[in-house]
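[User] At your convenience, examine this fold.
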Amino acid sequence: MQSLKIGFHVSISGSIDLAVDRAKEAGCTAFQIFLKNPRGWSYKPLREEEAALFVKKCEKFGYSELLAHMPYLPNLASPNDGIYKKSFNCLVEDLVRAGRLRIPYLVLHLGSHMGSGEEAGVKRIVEACRTALNTVGNKVMLLLENTAGQKNSIGSRFKDLRRIMDEIGEYSRVGICFDTCHAYAAGYDLRTEKAVSETLHQLDKEVGFEHVKSIHLNDSVGELGSHLDRHEHIGLGKIGENGMKAILHTPEIRKLPIVMETPVDKRRDDRGNLMKALELAT
């Protein structure tokens, strides 16, 4: 079997290049980072020496298919003009930073229409993404992440992701990040080999698996179709070991960078989840 590109979200605390050291020490062959403070609108400039050191370390350790993730606050579907403008500016800044760090993929939460309606929310997202990609002329690809289907959220159905991709229209710069917890919470079964096969067939039919560029491998605290966005340790949630094993044995998935966003608690830490995923993948 081919070796997996797998790891988890790592901290950029101290200096962004330290994330590479943390990933290497933990045994990751892929990883994901935030590009700036994930919980606020303000941020420090990305220093040239910091960016250069990040790139140098990635080259040294052979990290190529990395993921950057947008912060928590931006909401590109928001009807509030102030929030929308700040969210758009954040997207542009992250596209620029990812390019400077030579990170090929930027994962984007599609956000909530806040009661303005799905059509209005989708229109906002498409406008923001299209404008941002035209503004930032690098090769960074935006990855639209499927959601768990919480109230007013956008992007829980595969066909919605495809529609947004089509309306943005830049196929060389827009793809999909498939989150297993979110898919399960949205009602796509992943508990057995048969269920995984059927769900991925539906994903291929409605989106096209060639557009799926990364996997967020997370088990689910919530039941099937619960719309609860709460991640669980690999194999300890409602998807379970059988489902996780089936996902990790899918040839199309094994080719992609796989990132875990699992909890850290008394039961298990990041390394424990990495070990569990590798055990199930073998």
Summary: Residues 81-100 form the longest helix (20 residues). The beta strands are 5-8, 32-34, 67-69, 105-109, 141-145, 174-179, 212-216, 219-220, 231-232, 257-260.
